[in-house]
Design brief:
- The chain is mainly alpha-helical.
- The chain has a domain of 103 residues: HIV Type 1 Reverse Transcriptase, subunit A, domain 1 (HIV Type 1 Reverse Transcriptase, Chain A, domain 1, Roll).
- It contains six helices and four strands.
- The N terminus is likely disordered.
- GO terms for molecular function: endonuclease activity; peptidase activity; RNA-directed DNA polymerase activity.
- One of its GO terms (biological process) is proteolysis.
- This is Reverse transcriptase domain-containing protein.
Length: 194
């Protein structure tokens, strides 16, 4: 709520370094810019404060221009109870619309630099031997006449991941943070393991 105290020509930035211009990184837009100050509906602002509010809004317009600033004066630390292990739960059911909304939000956060994809592939030691050739695999079947793919459905998920490596597969989505207990698709060296 606006209060009629002080003068609008006095500096409003009293918090140490907490301004939209504090960031030296490129600003990333997370919301469309608001309408021009002159177009704002200020009917809820008391008459005696409207003009001051317009001047202040114009002067500090970078604070709410739709870009994401970054505060360098503090960080948020999370200290876990000793011996705490990552929490893993089965994901909640989500319909296509929820997933669509989630994907849009994840993309928005990626573009804004709020989240980043896990870099497991970049730090995984690559197997040095080549994958078997498909034609050689077929040839090794000899005169076999009947083939079945029933046991290959979700084949990667049939391969367990040792407990010591499960945290390396952690990911989060709309319902929380997860990790794989079975081999997921897309891991480096997963095709060779399968």
């Amino acid at each position: 709520m606006l209060q009629d105290q002080g003068r609008d020509d006095q500096p409003e930035e009293r918090s140490a370094g907490l301004s939209a211009s504090a960031s030296t990184k490129p600003q990333r837009r997370i919301e469309p810019p608001p309408p021009d100050v002159e177009e704002l509906d200020l009917s809820h602002v008391p008459d005696r404060l409207r003009e001051r509010f317009r001047r202040m809004s114009k002067k500090y317009s970078r604070v709410w221009d739709g870009t994401l600033g970054e505060i360098y004066t503090t960080v948020h630390r999370i200290e876990l109870i000793p011996e705490t292990r990552p929490i893993a739960k089965a994901p909640y059911r989500a319909g296509p619309k929820v997933c669509e909304i989630e994907d849009a939000e994840v993309q928005k956060m990626l573009e804004a630099g709020v989240i980043e994809p896990a870099q497991l592939k970049a730090v995984t030691v690559k197997d040095t031997y080549p994958l078997p050739r498909m034609d050689e695999c077929r040839d090794s079947l000899g005169d076999t006449k009947v083939f079945s793919a029933l046991d290959a459905i979700s084949g990667y998920w049939q391969m367990p991941i040792p407990e010591c490596d499960r945290d390396k597969t952690a990911f989060s989505c709309h319902s929380g943070l997860y990790r794989f207990s079975r081999m997921p698709f897309g891991l480096t060296n997963a095709p060779a393991t399968f």
